[in-house]
């Protein structure tokens, strides 16, 4: 981390080796870069001093004998050109170095701001560790904030606060960082992507520019509100109108259905997606199939376990009816016609809902992943032109009736076909087009995110009427998520350009090696159990899912060449996004690799690989110019914790250590807090024991991995003169409140693990004030 004290005089930055004490000798002189080879001003003076000669009449002899400077004209011109070129290179070097110094200084300020968001756990009493996220609790005492505030989108957070720094007059403001202790990795990544989209940095890539323009059009609420319902009404006319408005040209049912699925990613009667057959995956086959599932019906239904049927609840139907009426009213439907069409829509929806069933029921009945050919499906559910609809939806792929598809609720598909056929043949309703209106209603809900606030407010009121809460999502977050739906490949490309690939790959390798070493130290049930787990771990190939796997700028420009983004028409942009989304779904049928999830923040296994998304290696948790101790204390710990979570089932059932260490740490906690209130203290559940062990082991792995990196390169930087391990543990204490699916199982503040580690090892430079007594019944460390 090449940071200079002259750039940041307020920071105390030290270069430490592994063996130096916490407050050792002064840092060595910082290396100064040489000045540019040639000063452009000097170059200009040299050019101006060149003699200016006036031509005079020359004799023939004089003409033949040229002056000395003319004899070496080419050499002089060459030297002059070389000097100019050196000056240009020097100027470029100076500018690049200046930017590098600015980036390093910004990272240094960022690191300082990260440290200032929490108190030093080494200076806190045991009360600091009494409840989860103790440092956040201390901040709440000082600021009167409730737990949960500071988390983006949290219901208690009435005023939107920024998690990451915002640019103000070219500088970075860190005040809001100090207010937001509890950083969710997903929220931080979304904010990081937001900054990329909102940056004014020019790009020669047209795909990048279109992505940013799409995002900005989503933020332009004024244009969206001004447009009102007119863009949607125009789209209805493009689809042949509808009977609700009195103008419908009676379009073909199957043709309209195919267009809705292909161009607008709308699936009224059944869902379509692409995936593998788990039965084949187990045998090593990874072919993808079209998957046909029951749809996400708009009508509220509930599952009756006694009759094993879905049914509508009268109490929920009333607000649903009111919302449907409101939608038609907003679309300018004649008041006298609204109830006729709403009644038909609810009746048709109710008939379809009867055959729908929850996933757990279908799993118990063996109704998931039922394979059949399109020809066989046509025979079982003839009302749908399956080959025609699927060919339209997955254009330009070529399909045949002998191709296989996977069904996830065949009884529903059969019943849906009968229902559609019955409504198609109800001649008394031929002029009202109930099936067409049903499809338009579904299209409306698909496009509602791109429409004015009257529609979203109607949907919100309906949700509240059902007794459900509604999370207020900030506009920027909504727009980032919508942008990712269609432009995920561009965002992956942009994120890859900002990721420090070499540093991330080095950390992954060191953590994985240290984790395997930790597993070898565990006490196993028997030798076979140990070999079984280690064989699985050793078979995994950990690597960063880098930008090398995604399309380059030129390829992206070609792919998005037919996309036209209008900065003041989010609705038309959104239509193109839906088309892109379905196009991506089509490509999955033939793509050789899985589509990367740009917003992923946890590793996952794919075949024999353990893949780490680039979203794990972003500020404020990780930066290549941070001290390595900070990176290992935060992201190194998270990597180890995530890997352990993937392996917990195998480790728990084959090793005694999980239960033993979990109880050991918990007993330390009870012993350290014996003078505090003992309310709620009891034996831990299996899930709690597992999580205590996971986080304790992950912290040990992060420390070991960091020392492994020091053995490869003994130099590291620090902040405020803190010792390496002190800085690592301080950084760890800042991410232990990270929101993940397992956080509810952690019965104690993870910061307490610092006290446990420090009491049983010599890794800590000092002992925390929360000193814990040795266990009477334990002669070894947890």
TrEMBL record:
<dbReference type="InterPro" id="IPR042089">
    <property type="entry name" value="Peptidase_M13_dom_2"/>
</dbReference>
<protein>
    <submittedName>
        <fullName>Transcript variant X2</fullName>
    </submittedName>
</protein>
<dbReference type="InterPro" id="IPR008753">
    <property type="entry name" value="Peptidase_M13_N"/>
</dbReference>
<dbReference type="GO" id="GO:0005886">
    <property type="term" value="C:plasma membrane"/>
</dbReference>
<dbReference type="GO" id="GO:0016485">
    <property type="term" value="P:protein processing"/>
</dbReference>
<feature type="compositionally biased region" description="Pro residues">
    <location>
        <begin position="26"/>
        <end position="38"/>
    </location>
</feature>
<dbReference type="Pfam" id="PF05649">
    <property type="entry name" value="Peptidase_M13_N"/>
</dbReference>
<dbReference type="InterPro" id="IPR000718">
    <property type="entry name" value="Peptidase_M13"/>
</dbReference>
<feature type="region of interest" description="Disordered">
    <location>
        <begin position="142"/>
        <end position="169"/>
    </location>
</feature>
<keyword id="KW-0482">Metalloprotease</keyword>
<keyword id="KW-0378">Hydrolase</keyword>
<feature type="domain" description="Peptidase M13 N-terminal">
    <location>
        <begin position="188"/>
        <end position="542"/>
    </location>
</feature>
<dbReference type="GO" id="GO:0046872">
    <property type="term" value="F:metal ion binding"/>
</dbReference>
<keyword id="KW-1133">Transmembrane helix</keyword>
<feature type="domain" description="Peptidase M13 C-terminal">
    <location>
        <begin position="609"/>
        <end position="741"/>
    </location>
</feature>
<dbReference type="InterPro" id="IPR018497">
    <property type="entry name" value="Peptidase_M13_C"/>
</dbReference>
<dbReference type="GO" id="GO:0004222">
    <property type="term" value="F:metalloendopeptidase activity"/>
</dbReference>
<feature type="transmembrane region" description="Helical">
    <location>
        <begin position="75"/>
        <end position="95"/>
    </location>
</feature>
<keyword id="KW-0472">Membrane</keyword>
<dbReference type="Pfam" id="PF01431">
    <property type="entry name" value="Peptidase_M13"/>
</dbReference>
<keyword id="KW-0862">Zinc</keyword>
<keyword id="KW-0645">Protease</keyword>
<dbReference type="InterPro" id="IPR024079">
    <property type="entry name" value="MetalloPept_cat_dom_sf"/>
</dbReference>
<keyword id="KW-0479">Metal-binding</keyword>
<keyword id="KW-0812">Transmembrane</keyword>
<feature type="region of interest" description="Disordered">
    <location>
        <begin position="1"/>
        <end position="44"/>
    </location>
</feature>
